[in-house]
What we know:
Elements: H1 12-17, H2 36-48, H3 50-53, E1 58-62, H4 66-74, E2 79-84, E3 93-94, E4 107-112, H5 122-132, E5 133-140, H6 161-168, H7 181-186, E6 191-192, H8 197-200, H9 206-209, E7 219-221
Parallel strand pairs: 1-2, 1-4, 2-3, 4-5
Antiparallel strand pairs: 5-7, 6-7
Amino acid sequence: MSYRGGRRNVxxxxxxxxxxxxxxxxxxxPRCDCHDRERHLMLYLQAVGLFxxxxxxxxxxxxxxxxxxxxxxxxRPSRYVKCDxxxxxxxxxxxxMLAIPFADESFDFVVANHVLEHVDDDLKALGExxxxxxxxxxxxxxxxxxxxxxxxxxDAGIADERARLQAFGQEDHVRLYGRDIFDRFCxxxxxxxxxxxxxxxxxxxxxxxxxxxxEPFFLFQRVA
Length: 224
């Protein structure tokens, strides 16, 4: 979740629910415009050695961030599909996460960094992600959530932008995940490989890098 003007503009309910998402006070880099979410993910990928694993692999990347996608391309994957539901540049393919137009077991990696909270039927989307992953493939699924919520909160009646901002933290979010998020993702047939910032990046100064140290690395794997 990101807010113009930083923490003072976070909706009251989100402050009370203590949502874990972006570093709202240090969202964009003033030099390269890299978002905190992609900075954090690049640090995680480096820490677990996945950048080297991307070489000669097949990658499906939803809503690709500029700097992160450049870094992935530099690893020279054998196939790198950048996609979005509403493509805004010619290098993006139109892909609906609810009906991914690729064959079963097509990709070694699927990257969806802060995407699932925008998708109407996340369980169907997770099933599609699992379907197109190869056995042993990894899905990187960073998503805002609240540890105070026992259960993921979504309601079709919360449909206008002002209500969604207050309820879910952003005008175009359709749910706020709760502490059941990991079980929810695993129920789709993915195995958790989730790691915490303190485990992987204990040497990283979160304030200096402008990242939220409470945001885990949402890494999942298809094992069967």
